[in-house]
Design brief:
Structural class: alpha+beta
Helix content: 10-25%
CATH topology of the largest domain: Purple Acid Phosphatase, chain A, domain 2
Number of strands: 21
Largest sheet: 7 strands, antiparallel
Bound molecules: fe (ii) ion
Shape: globular
Number of helices: 8
Length: about 400
């Protein structure tokens, strides 16, 4: 009798184990949404799923009506007119009104089979707007004369420190975050990027506020470094780009790697000298553009500072980018990379403009009002260690 019961028990246990082994993981969001390239009329919303899916966003004005009050316009993740199937979802929304608050809801529909004439679907997942609230964002106000942003760099996947630094600023009035490179150690997979800092960004702010990414030398490394522009889309479709907000025109540069292209560490995959040469041709056009010339304030971001005389990448930045910037009425350059704070007033370095290098343990809380730039350098405990004021009046 006992022997029979024993075998029945074994039968059920092994059956359950085999079933558990064969069970497909549940279809889930693997990365919460984050906003990219928010402007007065457009935004890109990005998120991830653990399995192939087609995705879309529903948008609603932030009025008193329930999100469920009407059928909401849908914006799909498409590629030249065809809905995209994948695990990284990137939806570009256009035609928005300036300075307007919107609610949004994200959807992904699992694709279980994708043969030519036989595409099959599984579950649809979406953020809960019944028990939870829809996500919100506000488009930019092109007439805004005062802006508030914060800068961190060299987080190297230390999400605890990232959160502490973020909480050290008054986030309620932030317009956006600037992430000035080396947020991860290397780009081995998109999942590692989600874990490394993107999901933390979404939890902290990025469902509602965009972040602007500056590529650090560590983001040039790893097996999925080609995914960079899919994770962080830009108007140039390159890691370098410019954008204007309020009185400021920002130039985001990519200094690339720091050693010579032939260095053993790059496994014969580096071609950064040519990339920097192409970039400087783009830069020459930006600094004579109408958008740049009409901005009262010009701020340049580059992860590797043009500081020191020995490393190849830095020498390249000094010889290629700085001569152009020195003639372009730049008011401030923000850098990172060396994991400590340094400051060089205008003319104290190779730059004819102030160079502020942020450490990996401080957040720069930056306010720009008309022609003045005010910066608090704040540590993880929220203590303001240094303050800087730059006037752009000459
Ligand atoms: Fe770095």
């Amino acid at each position: 009798m006992y022997r029979k019961l024993f075998f029945i028990l074994i039968f059920f246990l092994t059956g359950n184990l085999l079933q558990a082994e064969n069970e497909e993981p549940e279809f889930l969001f693997s990365c919460q949404p984050y906003l990219q390239q928010l402007s007065d009329t457009e935004v890109t919303i990005v998120w991830g799923t653990n399995k192939d899916a087609v995705s879309w966003v529903e948008i609603a004005p932030d009025d008193s009506r329930n999100f469920y009050a009407a059928e909401r316009p849908k914006f799909f993740d498409t590629n030249f007119g065809r809905k995209k199937i994948g695990t990284l979802h990137k939806i570009h929304i256009t035609g928005l009104s300036p300075a307007t608050k919107y609610r949004y809801r994200i959807y992904s529909k699992e694709v279980t089979r994708k043969e030519h004439r036989d595409v099959r679907y599984g579950r649809v997942i979406a953020n809960n707007i019944h028990k939870g609230k829809p996500y919100v964002f506000s488009t930019l106000n092109p007439d805004k004369r005062e802006i508030h942003f914060a800068v961190v760099n060299d987080i190297h996947e230390n999400i605890g420190r990232y959160a502490k630094l973020f909480h050290a600023v008054d986030s309620a009035s932030l317009d956006f975050m600037l992430l000035n490179g080396d947020m991860v150690n290397k780009m081995d997979s998109v999942e590692q990027m989600y874990r490394g800092f993107i999901n933390t960004s979404s939890e902290l702010f990025a469902k509602s506020l965009p972040f602007y990414m500056v590529r650090g030398n560590h983001e040039t490394r790893g097996n999925c470094s080609e995914e960079y522009i899919n994770l962080f889309p830009s108007p140039t479709q390159q890691p370098y780009y410019s954008f204007a907000y309020g009185p400021v025109c920002f130039i985001v540069l990519d200094g690339g790697e720091d050693k010579p292209d032939s260095d053993i560490e790059y496994n014969d995959l580096a071609d950064f000298d040519k990339y920097r040469t192409e970039q400087v041709e783009w830069l020459k056009k930006v600094v004579v553009s109408e958008e740049y010339k009409k901005a009262a304030v010009h701020i340049v971001l580059i992860h590797v500072p043009p500081f020191g005389k020995t490393w190849h990448g830095i020498l390249e930045v000094q010889s290629k980018f700085i001569p152009v910037l020195n003639e372009a009425d730049v008011h401030l350059m923000l850098s990172g990379h060396i994991h400590r704070h340094e400051y060089y007033a205008s003319g104290q370095s190779v730059c004819k403009f102030p160079l502020l290098i942020n450490s990996n343990r401080h957040i720069l809380d930056v306010k720009v009002a008309d022609r003045e730039i005010y910066i608090d350098m704040i540590d993880e405990k929220g203590i303001v260690e240094k303050q800087f004021t730059f006037s752009t009046d000459k």
